[in-house]
Write a structure and sequence with these properties.
It is a single chain. The chain has 57 residues and is an all-alpha fold. The protein has one domain. The protein contains 3 helices and no strands. The chain is elongated and about 45 Å long. This is GlsB/YeaQ/YmgE family stress response membrane protein.
Length: 57
């Protein structure tokens, strides 16, 4: 049961970190659920995405 809770927390943490970097929260939460701490490392090393006023390039 503790392992399941840990993986859920990895998903939540990856989503929260992605939100802070202007990335897709739902996508990164799902990735966090699937690959756990590796998702935190990946999203943590990413550059912030474009803000709402910048648009996509």
């Amino acid at each position: 049961m503790e392992i399941f809770l840990a993986w859920v927390l990895f998903g939540v943490a990856a989503g929260a970190l992605a939100k802070g970097k202007n990335r897709n929260v739902v996508l990164w939460a799902i990735i966090g659920l699937l690959i756990g701490p590796f998702a935190l490392l990946i999203v943590g090393m990413m550059k912030p995405g474009p803000g709402p006023d910048q648009g996509f390039h």
